[in-house]
Amino acid sequence: MSIASTPAVTLGTSFARQLPELAVPWQGEEVPDARLLVLNEALAAEVGLDPQWLRGPDGLRLLTGTGTPAGATPVAQGYAGHQFGGYSPRLGDGRALLLGELSAADGTLRDLHLKGSGRTPFARGGDGRAVVGPMLREYVVSEAMHALGIPTTRSLAVTGTGRTVQRETGRPGAVLARIAASHLRVGSFQYVRATGDTDLLRRLADHALARHHPAATSYPALFAAVVAAQAALVARWMLVGFVHGVMNTDNMTISGETIDYGPCAFLEAYDPGTVYSSIDHGGRYAYGNQPAIAEWNLARLAEAMLPLLHDDEDEAVALAVASLGEFREQYHGHWSTGMAAKLGLPASAAGELVNDLLPLLRERKIDFTSFFRTLPRAAAHGDRELDDWVARWRAQGPDVAAMDRVNPAYIPRNHLVEEALAAAEDGDLGPFTELMAVLARPYDERPGLERYAAPAPADFGTYQTFCGT
Asked: Which letter does DSSP use for residue 455 in this model?
């Protein structure tokens, strides 16, 4: 069904046209009672969409994938992926649709993509639907990441479907609309490499070059650019205590944006072994493992791109190994610089202090976010080792004002996110709206918001997150 009354809405079709082998034309399933739960009006305006129109019937059809402008080609994307280390050659958008591309105010293209819009040919037995809680979780965390300055897909809207979706119990259904630089993934390259079609692999790489890394002048340069983007991204995750939870290769973008907020959470007591995901039984994607997993995923990208790197396989492997070998140094550079900034110090003065601090935080189960935010104003801890460390740190003359610009006062505290999502599924969006207002200004500490900066209460218990599929 087309939307005849919206000539101003234009959705590009470059992915569907240039890579039809990875695109299955599809549309969202009809919904009984579409109702807009939350709309990111500022983001809508940024990508040229009228918020008032999106709130109307035609806008709701767009946001649920049941109606698109003339000329649009909604598709389910095909990709492969290593999931918890095991390779799946055919994953794809089982409950998602790429509606098309929008032109943002800065002239770049942005994907308009749905989650929970119904079964597609990639559904693999799933119902293709989503529920309110997990879709609002992605909205909360992705917008919080954006406010923290971390590259991320962004949430445009969550629309209730009026349908009860069966999970552990019957839960209210919803569709998430999100905006991304693109949805090209490591898994996209793996999918194509498995076909043995080198021409298609080249077209995919050309699409990625043009879309994300136009400064790269060769396929080896493209791979190096993705390595650099991911090294910077994962370092920024680590600096704010973000735990992605499901770093499969189909969840790593070529653009360097964070994508797919499933069982994600934020670190509370500092511990590199922290795992929140209910399905990560072996701790593969623990907080402290994220840099190594990113490097592992990039090695899988290198394998997929080998035919493009050089005609001679040995030379191709050598080029891939050289670029991949840059990851650790790049990551460590970003992380070290970031940790020094969190302490208000130049990198040259912070190394030993950082190395001595992290074991103290872990042994004492100190809240990661609160420690750095309150450090400039903290009184004596009554802990000799910790107080000695603080004295050494103060002796370096830290820039306290600079610290408050990089250490957030507010993050999506797990207990507050759960509180907001539970209320929303019961029909009360008040706590969600209040939480979003706080998280929109994470570095700006405000009186009366103390509960949003405090760690979880002792009775919150062991926290576990779920994919929501």
From this structure: P
- Whole-model pTM: value is 0.95
**For 228-231, which contacts have Cβ atoms below 8 Å and span 24 or more sequence positions?**
228/326, 228/330, 229/151, 229/255, 229/256, 230/256, 230/294, 230/297, 230/298, 230/327, 231/294, 231/326, 231/327, 231/330, 231/331, 231/334
Number of domain units in the chain: 1
Pairing of strands 130-131, 265-266: unpaired
The answer to whether 238 and 216 have CB atoms below 8 angstroms apart is no
What confidence tier does 278 reach under pLDDT thresholds 50, 70, 90?
A: confident
Please say whether the beta carbons of 250 and 186 come within 8 A: yes
293 found inside a domain: no
- As annotated, the active-site residues are 250
How far CA 133 is from CA of 138, 147, 374, 410, in Å, comes to: 9, 21, 32, 21
- Total residues belonging to the chain: 469
| 324 part of a folded domain | no
- Judged against a pLDDT cut of 60, whether residue 406 lies above it is answered with yes
Residue 69 lies inside a defined structural domain of this protein: yes
In a domain? residue 124: yes
Task: Identify whether the C-beta of residue 39 lies closer than 8 Å to the C-beta of residue 62.
Answer: no
The residue range of the domain holding 6 is 2-180
Q: What are phi and psi of 232, to 5 degrees?
A: -65, -40
